[in-house]
Automatic annotation (TrEMBL):
<keyword id="KW-0472">Membrane</keyword>
<dbReference type="InterPro" id="IPR002659">
    <property type="entry name" value="Glyco_trans_31"/>
</dbReference>
<keyword id="KW-0328">Glycosyltransferase</keyword>
<comment type="similarity">
    <text>Belongs to the glycosyltransferase 31 family.</text>
</comment>
<keyword id="KW-1133">Transmembrane helix</keyword>
<keyword id="KW-0812">Transmembrane</keyword>
<keyword id="KW-0735">Signal-anchor</keyword>
<protein>
    <recommendedName>
        <fullName>Hexosyltransferase</fullName>
        <ecNumber>2.4.1.-</ecNumber>
    </recommendedName>
</protein>
<keyword id="KW-0808">Transferase</keyword>
<dbReference type="GO" id="GO:0000139">
    <property type="term" value="C:Golgi membrane"/>
</dbReference>
<dbReference type="Pfam" id="PF01762">
    <property type="entry name" value="Galactosyl_T"/>
</dbReference>
<comment type="pathway">
    <text>Protein modification; protein glycosylation.</text>
</comment>
<dbReference type="GO" id="GO:0006493">
    <property type="term" value="P:protein O-linked glycosylation"/>
</dbReference>
<keyword id="KW-0325">Glycoprotein</keyword>
<keyword id="KW-0333">Golgi apparatus</keyword>
<dbReference type="GO" id="GO:0047256">
    <property type="term" value="F:lactosylceramide 1,3-N-acetyl-beta-D-glucosaminyltransferase activity"/>
</dbReference>
<dbReference type="GO" id="GO:0030148">
    <property type="term" value="P:sphingolipid biosynthetic process"/>
</dbReference>
Length: 395
């Protein structure tokens, strides 16, 4: 029996080189790998195996008791932002009497200079007259905004905002700077306004100004909730993120440092692009904002924290989208509620959705089978998971 020592020596060299190459690749790609795989596994395990929520204590609260004033909290301080534009009677009739039949208070988060997006929404899915005349319900539309960030053009943009509001009467503005890091402040403004001026609304929706809402489908869904045995209580519905980890990459827009949020998992929350809460949940979130430190600037996560301490859990709906656009197809319009990433195409999408609704009030078995097959082909792809999941094809 002979042993080829030269061959063994060569094999060890190959092993050594391979190991070195793998280590080099891991070293270079570790941050990306950790972001997409390791941190998600660790976060999901923390959230669902241990279910530890140590942040629900005084370290992230301002006080042990809710305050009753109108203050918003930013970076651990109480800051009162006065209204620059407000419509306290928006949910009241001309005689000042409160409307009891407001089905939906629709808040659209909008940057001060996004006039074209707001106008497109007014003419399509946010049109209050359409909701009343065609759907038979009362929908109140408001755009939530702050002060334009660029000081050089702030005065010009503010004048344009005032003129816009004079024409349409649907802007709500406070004196904070309108930036990504003040989104939580904008969220607090919405729930505080609702609590003070429109507490009787059955539902509140928070939406970005670059989403499309299929209002007929949404109204139908909300009316079904009202007619249910629960009577539309404890409702918080949208595209749910479960066991999501904080982003620790400093080059990311969503970077959250350990000193701001030291835990490896966020509570469950819905995508901030568009979600709906029932009136009782809106009141609970308002109470939570009086307690929680609002220094966490990712508004949808802050919403999840508020809901968690109030005992409210998010409900997944297959046709509330995540970060991506819904595929364009009539078989999608029949079920769509929200789709993210729309600005220039809102009017054409609205016409297509309404035309499809008018011409397809009832479909036969073969039509339903065809649409199911189409939805499977369009939705059951990995790169579309942030819009609708594959299960949506069968709903």
């Amino acid at each position: 029996m002979f042993i080829n020592f030269r061959r063994i020596h060569k094999w060890k060299c190959v092993q050594l080189l391979t190991t070195a190459m793998v280590l080099c690749v891991l070293t270079v790609c570790w941050e990306e790998l950790d972001h997409h795989v390791v941190s998600h596994v660790r976060s999901y395990s923390y959230r669902y195996l241990f279910n530890r929520y140590d942040f629900l204590n005084t370290t992230i609260s301002h006080s042990n008791h809710p305050r009753k004033d109108g203050y918003s909290r930013v970076a651990g301080h109480s800051v009162k932002y006065p209204y620059l534009i407000n419509h306290p009677n928006k949910c009241r009739g001309k005689n000042g009497k409160v409307w009891d039949d407001v089905l939906l208070l629709l808040f659209v988060k909008s940057s001060p200079d996004n006039f074209k997006r707001r106008q497109a929404i007014r003419e399509t899915w946010g049109n209050e007259s359409f909701a009343w005349s065609q759907l038979g319900v009362s929908v109140t539309l408001l755009f939530a905004t702050g002060i334009y960030a660029d000081e050089a053009h702030r005065s010009r943009v503010q004048d344009a905002l005032q003129q816009e509001d004079n024409a349409f009467g649907d802007l709500i503005q406070q004196s904070f700077i309108d930036t990504f890091h003040n989104l939580t402040t904008k969220l607090i403004m919405q729930f505080h306004w609702s609590h003070k001026y429109c507490p009787q609304t059955h539902f509140l929706m928070s939406a970005d100004d670059d989403i499309f809402v299929h209002m007929p489908n949404l109204v139908k869904y909300l009316q079904q909730l009202l007619d249910s045995q629960s009577g539309a209580k404890d409702i918080w519905v949208g595209h749910v993120h479960k066991g999501a980890p904080p982003v620790r990459r400093k080059d990311s827009k969503y970077f959250v440092p350990y000193d701001l949020y030291p835990w490896p998992s966020y509570p469950d929350y819905t995508a901030g692009a568009g979600y709906v809460v029932s009136g009782d949940v809106a009141s609970k979130i308002y109470q939570a904002t009086l307690v929680l430190n609002s220094s966490l600037y990712i508004d949808d996560v802050f919403m999840g924290m508020c809901a968690k301490i109030m005992g409210v859990s998010p409900l997944e709906h297959a046709y509330f989208s995540g970060g991506g656009k819904a595929p364009y197809h009539p078989c999608i319009y029949d079920h769509m509620i929200t789709s993210h990433g729309h600005s220039a195409d809102v009017r054409s999408l609205w016409r297509a959705a309404i035309d499809f609704r008018a011409s397809n009030s009832s479909r036969g078995f073969l039509d339903e089978l065809y649409c199911t097959a189409v939805r499977v082909m369009l939705l059951c792809r990995l790169h579309l998971q942030s819009t609708y999941s594959c299960t949506a094809a069968f709903n």
